[in-house]
Amino acid sequence: QVQLVESGGGLVQAGGSLRLSCAASGNRGRVNVMGWYRQAPGKQRELVADITRGGTINYAESVKGRFTISRDNAKNTVYLEMNSLKPEDTAVYYCTATIFWTAGNYWGQGTQVTVSS
């Protein structure tokens, strides 16, 4: 069973920075896409950014220029560097991953990011 363990959330003032990490373990196959979604209270879960094993990256428009996603394939770990944080970035951030030749996404438990104004 694939497990995703997130770390790095917390409370930060507007304009500050945080770095999220997520490590995948228990996978028999190679990890394909890794990424981050977020869900704010009363809103739907939305994609923040994702990255393929080969390094192709996709960002939500709202975070372009402020967030940077990266990964270490050897460690099955994905990172999200978040700069110039805004109160509207406040949400629970979820790590997600897909495995080659396996249907569906795996999800982490989520980590809270709170940005105060």
Give a short summary of the structure:
With 117 residues, the protein is mostly beta strands.
Topology, element by element:
Layout: E1 3-7, E2 10-13, E3 18-25, E4 31-39, E5 46-51, E6 57-59, E7 67-72, E8 77-82, E9 91-99, E10 106-107, E11 111-116
Parallel strand pairs: 2-11
Antiparallel strand pairs: 1-3, 3-8, 4-5, 4-9, 5-6, 7-8, 9-10, 9-11
What does this structure look like?
The protein has no helices and eleven strands. The strands form two sheets. Strands 2, 4, 5, 6, 9, 10 and 11 form a seven-stranded mixed sheet that branches. It is an all-beta fold. β7 and β8 form a beta hairpin. The chain starts with a strand and ends with a strand. It has strands at 3-7, 10-13, 18-25, 31-39, 46-51, 57-59, 67-72, 77-82, 91-99, 106-107, 111-116.
Biggest beta sheet summary = 7 strands, mixed
Report how far the terminal alpha carbons are from each other: 40 Å
- Number of helical regions: 0
Give the strand tally. 11
Rg measurement, Å = 14 Å
Coarse structural class: mainly beta
What is the chain-wise order of helices and strands? EEEEEEEEEEE
Residue windows where pLDDT falls under 50 for at least 5 positions:
none
